[in-house]
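User: Can you predict the 3D structure for this chain?
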Amino acid sequence: MVPKTYLPNYREFYEARQFTPGDAARASEIDLAGQRAPFGSGLMFRLKEIPAFVLHVEICEDLWVPAPPSSFAALAGASVIANLSASNIVVGKEGYRHQLAGNQSARCLAAYLYSAAGPASRPPTWRGTATP
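Assistant: Here is the predicted structure, written as structure tokens:
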């Protein structure tokens, strides 16, 4: 399980009221569905069959900070970065998000996969978006 590292706490986002940043977690494992599962923002997922495939996951806001967790993951060998998000709709944000993900992919020398939750019950505030 990969927690979000950076919690937005501005405009319509109030995550710091409810959550603790993932990098502050004291445990490196949690109980999930009756099993022990690794927990942390620095996890890397590897495939024995494809040694060059090393996946790192970051959550939403983690991409929007000056030093995203994916930067450190790339230095540790990540070749694919996945960002699971719930990005709101703001004029100009889609183009900026494409640039941000593209630039991070280039800096990390890794594929960057971005996927936002949607559709929402109250459009046009939130919508699903995917950026390969």
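DSSP finds two helices and seven strands in the chain. The beta strands are 29-32, 35-38, 44-46, 54-59, 80-85, 111-116, 129-131.
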